[in-house]
């Protein structure tokens, strides 16, 4: 058991840090959130798709099929696995570089179409897959919104052959305001900081985008599809009606 030497309450430090983080997002990213909402609302109005791809920090689980969430948000996910042990396999970084260009074929196999909006979440924004996905999506006529940590990403070198990071590939970049290395709290007794920022801030940003998007659509006379909690009596019938409505209207 680690005995903490510091006199302060780490729980309270966390609450302070997370409140400061959300306030910083509100103060610095409000314009970008409005821009993202306008892009998404326009796409929904035209019956286009809204896709969410995340590298594993909550976003594509938080948004999809949630009570009170826009049904238009759809997860984009993919798996690629190769097993062949005839020779020693390359290191992960080399393997990723060799797979550059895979996203071109993945998108062709997907339901991502020109005019759609693709939200890509990556804290560092340096690895091959999210950067290559942004590159190929934009090249095929998809609007790309990046959700990343600018302070972190600017310190890093891209793994992509273009030399660009995610925020440099996207049509619009939103800063999740996570610090470099993501974790927020330095603890004297620990070898590494604790409590990452990016998952919470990215979720807050996306729900703020939803709120603004709904407002824009209602102003245009469009009522977007939103689901109710499945634990609420009668919600199953309501949700099924909403899903059918979405298939018919695209919003």
UniProtKB/TrEMBL annotation:
Region (Disordered): 232-251
Keywords: Isomerase
GO MF annotation, one: carbohydrate derivative binding
All residue ranges annotated as the SIS domain in the record: 40-219
PANTHER family: PHOSPHOHEPTOSE ISOMERASE (PTHR30390:SF7), SEDOHEPTULOSE 7-PHOSPHATE ISOMERASE / DNAA INITIATOR-ASSOCIATING FACTOR FOR REPLICATION INITIATION (PTHR30390)
InterPro entries assigned: SIS_dom, SIS_dom_sf, SIS_GmhA/DiaA_subfam
Pfam families: SIS_2
Regions of compositional bias (Basic and acidic residues) in chain numbering: 237-251
Protein name from the UniProt record: Sugar isomerase domain-containing protein
Gene Ontology terms describing biological process: carbohydrate derivative metabolic process
Superkingdom field: Bacteria
């Amino acid at each position: 058991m680690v005995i903490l030497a510091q006199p302060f309450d780490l729980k309270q430090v966390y609450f302070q840090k997370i409140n400061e983080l959300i306030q910083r997002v509100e103060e610095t990213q409000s314009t970008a959130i409005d821009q993202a909402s306008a892009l998404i609302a326009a796409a929904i109005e035209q019956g286009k798709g809204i896709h969410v791809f995340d590298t594993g920090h909550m976003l594509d689980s938080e948004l999809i099929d949630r009570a009170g969430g826009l049904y238009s948000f759809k997860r984009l996910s993919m798996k690629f696995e190769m097993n062949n042990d005839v020779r020693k396999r390359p290191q992960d970084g080399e393997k990723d570089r060799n797979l550059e260009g895979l996203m071109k074929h993945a998108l062709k196999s997907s339901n991502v179409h020109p005019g759609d909006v693709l939200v890509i979440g990556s804290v560092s924004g340096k690895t091959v897959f999210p950067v290559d996905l942004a590159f190929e999506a934009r090249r095929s006529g998809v609007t790309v919104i990046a959700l990343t940590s600018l302070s972190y990403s600017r310190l890093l070198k891209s793994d992509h052959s273009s030399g660009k990071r995610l925020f440099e590939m996207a049509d619009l970049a939103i800063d999740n305001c996570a610090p470099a290395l993501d974790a927020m709290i330095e603890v004297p007794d620990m070898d590494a900081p604790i409590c990452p920022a990016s998952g919470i801030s990215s979720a807050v940003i996306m729900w703020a985008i939803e709120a603004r998007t709904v407002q824009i659509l209602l102003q245009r006379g469009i009522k977007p599809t939103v689901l109710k909690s499945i634990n609420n009596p009668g919600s199953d019938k309501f949700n099924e009606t909403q899903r059918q409505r979405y298939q018919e209207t695209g919003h």
